[in-house]
Each structure stands twice: as C-alpha cells, then as structure tokens.
Amino acid sequence: MRLPRSSGILLHPTSLPSGKLDAEAYRFVDWLEAAGQSWWGILPLGPPDEYGSPYAAQSAFAGWRGLLAEPKAPVSGRELEDFVARHPVWTGDWAAFAGGEAIADQVRFEREWGALRTYAGKRGVRIYGDLPIYVAPGGADHVSRPELFQQGVVAGAPPDALSRTGQLWGNPLYDWPAHRATGYRWWTERFARVFELVDLARVDHFRGFVSYWSVPERHRTATHGRWRRAPGAELFAAVSQALGALPLVAEDLGVITPAVYALRDALGLPGMAVLLWAFGGSAGNPHAPRNHRENEVVYTSTHDTDTAAGWFESLARKERAATGLDRSEPAWGLIELAMQSRARLAILPAQDVLGLGSEARMNYPGRAQGNWSWRLRRGQLTNALALRLRDAATAGGRAGR
Questions:
Q1: Per-residue pLDDT for 365 more than 90?
Q2: What's the rounded Cα separation, in Å, for the pair 324 and 314?
Q3: Which of 141, 204, 252, 352 is catalytic?
C-alpha cells in the first residue's frame, strides 16, 4: 500500500482524561484536526489483562467495555441478533468466556466506537490501530479453540545484548499446520475484525510470521528455546484473497533477518523507524534520517520506549551534544526531524508533543506492573500546541485539511 504523506498522534483511549469514549475523545479529534493531523494512533482495543496491558487482551476480537462512556445503555434483542449474525465466528466463544452482558457490551462498543470513528473521518482523521501477533494465555481464543495452538511450548525471544536469558512472554504459540488446514480462517476473521475498527493497523512482532522463538513451557527463562518456521507469505496471501488489499504496517524493529525484510517488501508493507535510535551506530543505521525510506512510518518514540524528553535526559553530556538537539526542547527537535523525514507517515506520541519526561512513559517492556496508566490532563493539549504542530506539519508537507 502507498501511504499519503501525513502525520498523526499516538494516544490510546485509556490515556484520554476520562479514559472513555466520551466528550473528551471528540475534543481530542477536534484538536487533531486543528493541529493538521490526519491520524489518531491507538493501541489494541481489546479487554486488557489484570495489569492493564492491551497486548494481553482476553479476546482478539472483542472491544473493551471499560472504554464505554455509557456502559448501561439499553440494547435491544434485534441489535443482539444482528451483531451475532455479522460476527458468527467469535461471538459464541466470547459469550461463553465472558458471560453476562458480553454481547450487549459489544453492541455498545460498536455504537460508541463507530460514532467516534465517523466523527473523526468527517474531520479528515483516520484511525491507526495495532494488532498483536499473539493472544493471551487462558484468554477466550486460547480456551475456546485449543486445537489452533501448540501444547507444551510458549512464546518468547532469544538471549541477546539486552537480556542474557532472553524474554519469556508465555503466550500460546500457534499450531500453524492446523491453521493451514482451515485455510487460515481464524486469521481471516481476525484481520476482518481489525479493519472493522481501524483504517490502518501495525502488525506487532511481524518477524514472528517468518520464524518464532519456541520455549518449553516448564522453563523459567527463554534461554533454551529454538527457532521454528512460520507460514510467512502463505498466510497473508490467504487473508488478502478473502479480504483484498491489507492496510498494514510491519513492526520490523530489533534484530531482524533478511527473510523478514524480504517478506515485508514482497507484501509492500511500510516498516518502522524510531528517532530515539537515530543517533550513533553504523553508517547504515536504519533509524537515522539519511537512511529512512519513503514506504515507512517514522516515530519520535513509541509506547514501549522512554519519551523523547526522558530519553534525552538519560544521555551523558557528550551524547546529548552529539545529537545536535536543543536541550531546552529535545522532543520538538525530534518532532521536526520526523516531519522532515522521507518516510511518508510520521507518528508522534502525545507525550512528546507535550515535552513530558519519563514519568509519562506508557510501558516498560518486561515489567508487569506500573504500566499503561498515563493520562492527559483536561485541556493539556492547547490551541497553541495545535497551531505549533500544524506549522511543523505544513513545513514537512504533511498537514491535513
């Protein structure tokens, strides 16, 4: 796919002042329009785990009732029947898992999210979502469809420079031959659901579709896992045959093999560059602006990294000087670099627009508690900030209407 030259703000709905799809969400859309932004970037919308992580959602399909502005709004029998008829593959499993008002909550979610998305679209703002590769252990998908998952092994990442024992995520791993036998129906339904909710989606841990790290379930670390092959292009071919063009972005960060880049490029998917990692490294550092590609999404920082200001403060004095950034406003220095980048889409976390430090960080990977809780204060995104951001977007040829 070919992205238009544009920019947007990353702000999960839980980070709105109320954490709900209420009037504050609509005010944020108005602010995006005033700021010349064409995209609202979000994290996964499913029901999070006990720690609040949207990447460990209890369903790969259901929206989270915790976002509802009106969780007790009436739902008719006709609405329930219509929703189930349009989503026959997963609604029964979710109702059996969540019980009670499970399907009524999905009707409410569809109402509220659909109305907000329509409002945004009329103002030139589209939704940039996120699709985690794995499902949560013990979640609705894992419990209701055990035949689609392997037994005795879990997901993780191998030892590297950041962790001598690797990362033990614990997610169930897919039984890829079982998915192949169904023509990848579950995946087709999953992507279809994603595109009901967003206009563009980032595929988290894209490299796992080429090969994945498999760890014996009983192990306490990921040290003794092994690489196993995933279906790669075959899966995406099956999904695109059913759904047509797939508006996706490949999360291709970390130590990536040539095979992963080859799949990304064969599918025509944009990759990612993160400006926190643009300074230093080899001449071929893919995050350095000189090496950005047009078919790419450039971020100042991400939900998994420190904020731009927090990162800058963590650098030694010589390292700060080497960046060439203004010490008084390092985040805005990165914003201007992103706006001027060759990459067609620039995404800026709201924390960077506000110049906030590490106290506003969204997530610390590998740490279960203390994440996902940052919120805007009402009125924190001012008209003056909107005008400043619109000027930067205009200078970079990215301003929306």
A1: no
A2: 15
A3: 204
Residue 257 and residue 247 in contact, taking contact as beta carbons nearer than 8 Å: no
* Residue 204 annotated as catalytic: yes
For tokens 């390292």, what's the residue? 319
Distances (CA, A) of 225 to 135, 138, 176, 228, 317: 19, 21, 18, 10, 40
Write the CB contacts of 367 (distance below 8 Å, at least 6 apart in sequence): none
110 tagged catalytic: no
Is 33 one of the annotated active-site residues of the chain? no
Nearest-angstrom CA–CA distance, 397 and 339: 8
Residue 228 to residue 250: CA distance in whole angstroms = 20
Q: What is the mean pLDDT of residues 78-86?
A: 97
Q: Which residues pair with 180 in a beta bridge?
A: none
Confidence class of residue 277 from pLDDT cuts 50, 70 and 90?
very high
pLDDT digits (tens, 9 = 90+) for 161-214: 667 888 898 999 999 999 999 999 999 999 999 999 999 999 999 999 999 999
d(CA 396, CA 342): 9
In the predicted model, what is the mean pLDDT of the chain? 96
Rounded to the nearest 5°, which phi and psi values hold at 334? -70, -35
Please report the pLDDT score of residue 234 as a whole number. Answer: 98
Give the active site residue among 30, 175, 304, 391.
304
Cβ-based neighbours of 396, under 8 Å, separated by 6 or more: 7, 336, 338, 339, 340, 341, 346
> What pLDDT score was predicted for residue 332?
97
Kindly state the helix (H) or strand (E) to which residue 121 belongs, with its residue range.
helix 102-122
- The fraction of the chain above a pLDDT of 70, given in percent, is 99
Domains and CATH numbers, the chain: 6-151+173-213+227-395 (3.20.20.80)
Of the ranges 181-190, 216-225, 263-272, which one carries the lowest mean pLDDT score? 216-225
CB-based contacts of 57: which residues, under 8 Å, 6+ apart? 44, 46, 47, 48, 49, 64, 132, 135, 136, 139
83 closest CA partner among 114, 57, 59: 114
Residue-level pLDDT at 1: 66
On whether the CB atoms of residues 286 and 334 are closer than 8 A, the answer is: no
* d(C-alpha 279, C-alpha 69), whole Å: 43
